[in-house]
Specification:
Layout lengths: L4 E5 L5 H17 L12 H10 L2 E6 L2 E10 L9 E2 L7 E9 L8 H15 L4 E6 L4 H9 L3 E8 L2 E9 L2
Organism: Chryseobacterium panacisoli
Protein name: GNAT family N-acetyltransferase
Keywords: Plasmid, Transferase
Length: about 170
């Protein structure tokens, strides 16, 4: 039987579970030798802010949270300056803070999360999705490449330079 997989906006009741998943991802990044997320960000306050602003989204599998990420419409100040060039200058969805529960790691759930984000973007008539990741986050780099995201250059975020990607949806 196929599991029921859904994307939904996260609620305050999801906060502690989301924070557990992010902590797992912080530890995985550390074990992989990545510098991403090793300086106190993201933290519980970040999760609470995402939920309060309506940015937080979860991918559920039979009602259980498998993946968390923040979806932000047209608003990432760091993206206004890029060493390189974006593919477009229309409306876009920014994807930040993607984290997968270790129980679901390696099962393609982040790919499914991006599938749902692409459907969300298309259904709202939004032109593209923009995302950045650390140069040493091999798992995310592989996912973005496999999903057809184009490398556009480098952007400066609070914790350093990041590789920036975009995918035109409509």
């Amino acid at each position: 039987m196929n599991p029921e997989i859904k994307l939904r906006q996260s609620q305050i009741e999801d906060r502690d579970r989301i924070w557990e998943i992010i902590q797992q991802s912080i530890e995985r990044r550390r074990q992989d030798g990545s510098t991403q997320w090793q300086n106190g960000y993201p933290n519980l306050g970040t999760v609470e802010s995402d939920i309060a602003k309506g940015f937080g989204h979860v991918l559920t599998v039979d009602g259980e949270i498998a993946v968390y990420g923040a979806l932000i419409l047209n608003d990432e100040p760091a993206y206004s300056t890029i060493e390189g060039a974006w593919l477009s200058d229309g409306e876009f969805v920014v994807v930040h803070r993607v984290a997968v529960d270790e129980k679901f790691a390696g099962q393609g759930m982040v790919k499914k999360f991006f599938d749902h984000i692409e459907e969300f973007t298309k259904s709202h008539g939004i032109q593209s999705i923009k995302v950045d990741t650390n140069h040493d986050n091999m798992a995310m780099l592989k996912i973005l490449e496999g999903r057809g995201y184009s490398y556009c250059g480098e952007v400066l975020l609070r914790d350093g330079m990041r590789k920036a990607f975009e995918k035109i949806i409509i």
